[in-house]
Amino acid sequence: MAISPELKQRLIKEFGRGKNDTGSPHVQIAVLTHGIQNLTQHLKTHNKDHSSRRGLLAMVSRRRRLLDYLKAKKPEDYVTIIGQLGIRK
Questions:
Q1: Structural domain boundaries of the chain?
Q2: What is the four-CA torsion angle of 81, 82, 87, 89, rounded to 10 degrees?
Q3: According to the 3-state scheme, what is the secondary structure of the chain?
Q4: Rounded to whole angstroms, what are the CA distances from 62 to 18, 19, 47?
Q5: Model-level pTM greater than 0.85?
Q6: In a designed cystine with 39, which of 9, 45, 55, 56 is the match (CB 3.0 to 4.6 A)?
Q7: 16, 6 in Cβ contact below 8 A?
Q8: Angle at 9 (CA atoms; ends 3, 34), nearest 5 degrees
Q9: pLDDT for res 10
């Protein structure tokens, strides 16, 4: 369920603002979104895995806080990233 280093590097390259940008909200949101999608698939087959469900809720909350921050600071980036990741309808 952990994200592979190759995939993480690809996400950093795609969503990062610079060459070595790993801490911007854009990259963090992308990495969390991928983890949330993986954990959601896991929980569809293992519905009694309550510790993973708790971790999923924590990841969703962390992503929500990052999205709120991005929306307050750079609304145009917020719209762009939710469009790229497909996390809002």
A1: 53-89
A2: -160
A3: CCCCHHHHHHHHHHHCCCCCCCCCHHHHHHHHHHHHHHHHHHHHHCCCCHHHHHHHHHHHHHHHHHHHHHHHHCHHHHHHHHHHHCCCC
A4: 23, 24, 22
A5: yes
A6: 56
A7: no
A8: 40
A9: 92
